[in-house]
User: Fold this.
Amino acid sequence: MKGLELNSDKSDKLDDNSSPCVDDDDAPVLSSHALAALKEFLAEQNPDAETEGDSEVVLVSEDWRLSQFWYEPETAKTLAEEVLTLSEGFNSRIACIACPTLFAYLKRINPNVSVQLLEYDKRFEQYGSDYTFYDYNHPEDLPSELKHAYKVVVADPPYLSKECLEKVAQTISFLAQPRDSRLLLLTGEVQKDKAAELLGLHPCGFRPQHSSKLGNVFQLFTNYDPGMRLGGWEN
Assistant:
């Protein structure tokens, strides 16, 4: 998720397993032991939990030096529900680029969902084989088995720079299946034209919100028409 460059200005941020290619029926799932270890690790990092009924999602603390800003619970749940809807329709794997909040909510809602987190922060190695180290400065320096392996790809670039978006777009193209993949990009509203140019994405009415209130307006972009969901495509 985070490149080697560091940025202490929160206004420049938008957000916030390495499994071999197999048949859908053999898609790997996180074991109960791994889930228990993950929950223990997250609880140690941050005792403050976000709850929904009996479900608890505990997140590691944000590190502003890595431009980390987590989603508000309602944003995370809305995104997770959308991604799961897309995944169920295609019965396929999901890639989350630099959006660990979404990953955590996906696993909470459906522990058996096949989702890969690509992230710079190595604290997330606790996710085991569902975690792949990712530095956007090297957009295709990834295990070969991840290439064109994902029908649903969600990305939240760590910085609002043209260079960062261009490199993350390379990673998206590396991961996404060549035909009929579903792409979701969360970034600043100012990236609208670049998102369209690089990936053919359209802005949705849905506005992501973050637990740390940021100065920039953020937006969700998709390569598919969500219809009545996510506020629909903007005209």
Remarks:
- The longest strand covers residues 182-188.
- The CA atoms of residues 27 and 114 lie 7 Å apart.
- The chain has five helices and nine strands.
- The beta strands are 49-52, 55-58, 94-97, 115-119, 131-133, 152-155, 182-188, 202-203, 218-222.
